[in-house]
Backbone:
């Protein structure tokens, strides 16, 4: 009996130390080890640029490494499914896009994640302007001239896009203008822009970030933007809805937000969101992103969730009403 009592007492002490250790770990300040932001695109595109700006500032503020990891594939679905399965501890975040949270669920029958159930929304981080662009050297000067060129050579022109949202925008433009053109797929913004530069395609619809330096250097020409919001980097570029009289293309923008695996503690979610809000208030950060063609935006987790649900409904109706089939 004395031996049994001693054994039980020893186990009790061990359990006590284990509980204390668990409590200490749960009470440890976040983050106490490196944080990853998974970007579902190759390096160099707007999502990657924004994620790296955010990661650098968070690293400075937290005195802890925040690293960006690129994992492209399957229209962002590979990275999204991976993050959805990660521990809900705030150490793996996803730079999610409209494609990730809205278009993939609408067009994919066997998606390996649920945007509303598998993620904890943190904040919107940007609403970016998409552009209709051509090569400056041999491309048309106006939207009307592009339409005329395409109609003069049915089935001969190619257009490119790197994500579902911009592909859908290009599809709507071609449909509204009555154009017979071929779609060439790319994986993200940099390859899309490169395809235009090399002549693989005749025009592209893409976020402004990757195109802007080439527009400013005179290699590309922006014919129109796909929303009516001010875009200081290109103040003279008009909305496509105005230039071509296409109301269906009045507000098509790509957007980016931060999400974490579902179940991530609210305190961690709020801490990350606050840091993003604070960094965007820094004129140096805002100016750096604006010059990269990235328009900053923030939201509460609840606002972000409501925004995603609204976009799901909106694009669901567009796909249903238009009869567009995307594979």
Residues:
């Amino acid at each position: 009996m004395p031996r049994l009592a001693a054994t039980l007492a020893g186990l009790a002490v061990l359990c006590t130390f284990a509980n204390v250790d668990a409590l200490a770990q749960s009470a440890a300040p976040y983050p106490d080890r490196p944080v990853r932001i998974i970007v579902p695109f190759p390096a160099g595109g707007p999502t990657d640029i924004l994620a790296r700006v955010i990661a650098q500032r968070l690293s400075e503020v937290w005195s802890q490494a925040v690293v960006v990891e690129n994992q492209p594939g399957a229209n962002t679905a590979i990275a999204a499914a991976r993050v959805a399965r990660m521990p809900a501890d705030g150490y793996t975040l996803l730079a999610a896009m409209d494609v990730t949270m809205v278009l993939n669920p609408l067009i994919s029958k066997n998606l390996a994640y649920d945007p509303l159930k598998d993620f904890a929304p943190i904040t919107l981080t940007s609403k970016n302007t998409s552009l209709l662009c051509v090569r400056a050297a041999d491309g048309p000067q106006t939207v009307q001239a592009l339409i005329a060129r395409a109609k003069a050579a049915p089935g001969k022109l190619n257009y490119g896009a790197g994500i579902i949202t911009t592909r859908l925008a290009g599809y709507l433009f071609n449909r509204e203008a009555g154009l017979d053109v071929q779609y060439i797929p790319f994986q993200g913004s940099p390859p899309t822009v490169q395809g235009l530069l090399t002549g693989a395609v005749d025009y592209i619809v893409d976020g402004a970030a990757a195109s802007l330096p080439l527009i400013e250097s005179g290699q590309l020409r922006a014919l129109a933007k796909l929303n009516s919001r001010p875009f200081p980097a290109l103040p003279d570029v008009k909305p496509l809805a105005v230039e071509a009289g296409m109301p269906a293309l009045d507000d098509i923008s790509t957007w980016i937000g931060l999400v974490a695996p579902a179940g991530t503690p609210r305190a961690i979610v709020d801490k990350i969101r606050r840091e993003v809000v604070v960094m965007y208030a820094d004129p140096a950060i805002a100016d750096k992103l604006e010059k990269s063609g990235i328009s900053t935006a923030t939201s509460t987790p609840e606002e972000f969730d409501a925004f995603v649900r609204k976009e799901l409904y909106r694009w669901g109706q567009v796909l249903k009403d238009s009869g567009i089939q995307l594979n």
About this structure: The radius of gyration is 23 Å.
